[in-house]
Amino acid sequence: MASVKDWIEGARLRTLSAGLSPVIAGTGIALWLGAASFPRFLLAAIVALALQIGSNFSNDYSDGIRGTDDVRTGPPRLTGGGKANPKTVKMVAFACYGIGAVAGLALVALSGAWWLLGIGVLAIAAAWLYTGGKHPYGYMGLGEIFVFIFFGLVACAGTTYTQAGTVPWQGWLVAASLGFIACAVLMANNIRDIPTDEQAGKMTLAVRLGDKRARIAYGLLCFVPVIAAVTFVPTVNWWAFLYVPALVLAALNTARVMGIASKKPAQGLELIPVLRDTGFVGLLYAIATLLAFALA
After folding, report:
1. Is-contact 17 282, C-beta < 8 A?
2. Three-state DSSP class for residue 168
3. Whole-Å CA distances, 2 to 5, 23, 42, 60
4. Exposed e or buried b for every residue in 29-67, given b needs 16+ CB within 10 A?
5. pTM score over 0.85
6. Contact at 8 Å (CB) between 228 and 181?
7. Which 3 state secondary structure label does DSSP give 226?
8. 64, 85, 126, 245: most buried by Cβ count inside 10 Å?
9. Angle separating helix axes 38-66 and 86-111, nearest 10 degrees
10. Could you give the CA distance from residue 128 to residue 133 in angstroms, rounded to a whole number?
11. DSSP 8-state secondary structure symbol assigned to residue 35
12. What phi, psi does 3 have (nearest 5°)?
């Protein structure tokens, strides 16, 4: 029987900053526009975190019943590790989706943007179909595309829109930047799992690129958003220096992934801290956006 610790591990807390970061940044843009709303921020955060946790549990369930997690480099999963009944894991995943749906409905009602309900339905479908269903897109190497859309554009720009009713170009660029960083989180995870995913027939983008090119792609995904922050200088002036911590951490992560300092790229379990710290890059980027635009 799975312990509380096992369920917490199943939620993959180390990755949750990827869901919260776009909400923080989107609220920063709304604050700059003079339209920030704490209740709407809170609802958007619940939506993002509930869907991400739900996705993590549904991935645990789907990969587990397919046998993808039979041999893992990372921590054992609830389903694949035989720690919990697969049906229970699936029910928990759908309960998380339900929480996200209720919070999303409240957010849409407050904002009056009822057309966003359709986007919400697509977000839940994307969370499930990453590894669920007959033709999971995560097994086709399309995971990064959907992560970019829903953890970047939808989560960040959507947060700004539900508070301000509009999204300026700066908001779209921040949304795209955080989408790239979220893709880097996924890439770090999938680089770690290349040997086992390939064996299980899970053709992630990392598997398709191969280890060396996947690591180069990781570096690009981390640095493009930070470099993009330079375009904010005319808007936020010298407050742009707040993005420096994100740049430094992105550089350190890339050095570990590429083996620049140690001359040996991080492998297997060594990539778990990179996975966590890549999420922190997004969080630092989001906090920088919130502060820089609030103080501009």
Report:
1. yes
2. coil
3. 8, 32, 30, 13
4. bbbbbebbbeebbebbbbbbbbbbbbbbbbbbbbbbbbe
5. yes
6. no
7. helix
8. 64
9. 160
10. 8
11. -
12. -85, 170
Provide the residue-wise pLDDT of the chain in tens; the chain has 296 residues: 788 888 888 888 878 888 999 999 999 999 999 999 999 999 999 999 999 999 999 999 998 888 776 666 667 788 888 888 999 999 999 999 999 999 999 999 999 999 999 999 999 999 999 999 889 999 999 999 999 999 999 999 999 999 999 999 999 999 999 999 999 999 999 999 999 888 888 999 999 999 999 999 999 999 888 888 899 999 999 999 999 999 999 999 999 999 887 778 988 888 989 999 999 999 999 999 999 999 99
| Alpha-carbon gap, residue 185 to 276, rounded angstroms | 8
**Structural domain of 50:** 4-295
User: Is the CB of residue 253 less than 8 Å from the CB of residue 281?
Assistant: yes
Indicate which CATH number applies to the domain containing 280: 1.10.600
- 5-188-291 Cα angle (round to 5): 85
Domain count, the chain: 1
Q: Are 28 and 290 in contact (CB under 8 A)?
A: yes
CA neighbor of 25 nearest in space, from 291, 295, 233, 246: 291
| 8 Å CB contact between 185 and 15 | yes
Please answer whether residues 249 and 281 qualify as being in contact, where contact means their C-beta atoms are separated by less than 8 angstroms. yes
- Which tokens go with 2? 């799975």
Joined tokens for residue 207: 């598997």
CA distance 218 to 210: 12
| 196: CB partners within 8 A, 6+ apart | 68, 71, 72, 73
Token representation of residue 101: 């749906």
- Asked if 167 and 111 count as a contact pair (C-beta separation under 8 A), the reply is no
